[in-house]
Amino acid sequence: MRTTQTLFNFLKNIVLMGGLFIILSIVVDWYRKPTAPIEFSQQVLYDTQVQPKVLAQMSYDKPMLLYFWGSWCSFCKYTSPSIQQLAKEGVPVLAVALKSGSVEDVNHYLAQENYDFTTINDPTGAFSKEWDIQATPTILIIKDGKIINHTTGLTSLWGLKIRLWLADIMG
């Protein structure tokens, strides 16, 4: 009887802590919510390969990820492999390398880490400032040129997959 009660209390504490973590995570994301520049979806952006990218076009068929990261960011080192996996699975990804050096530095870092997701360079942080990015990593899910969801900090591959799926059925 005592073991059952101890197990019940343990599970109850796990559920309570998990719920508290989820609530805290939602509050932090709300506080760090990026603000998109006016008409952001039509802006032409050039990646590190000097190829033009337009968010409205990239997000027309299905939800896309706009991923703000930095080569210096320790949390990004855990998130970027998930972004790479999603890109390999066909999810449109446009990454923004925030204050990570020159185009050559960014391309070298991407090659060194075996990342081939499309990346634009933001060496001074001016582009990220237009979006009011307060933390890295920041991930926005965009569908049909509209921000559907966002998250900051660590996130899992499955957390991103669920957000993408929800954006697809809700958008």
UniProtKB/TrEMBL annotation:
Membrane-spanning parts: 14-31
Gene Ontology terms for molecular function: antioxidant activity; isomerase activity; oxidoreductase activity
Keywords carried by this UniProt record: Isomerase, Membrane, Transmembrane, Transmembrane helix
PROSITE patterns linked: THIOREDOXIN_2
Annotated signal sequence range: none
Pfam families given in the database record: AhpC-TSA (PF00578)
Name recorded for this polypeptide: Thiol-disulfide isomerase/thioredoxin
Entry annotated with the keyword Membrane: yes
Matching PANTHER family: THIOL:DISULFIDE INTERCHANGE PROTEIN DSBE (PTHR42852), THIOREDOXIN-LIKE PROTEIN HI_1115 (PTHR42852:SF17)
Stretches assigned to the Thioredoxin domain: 31-171
Naturally occurring in which organism (per UniProt): Nicoletella semolina
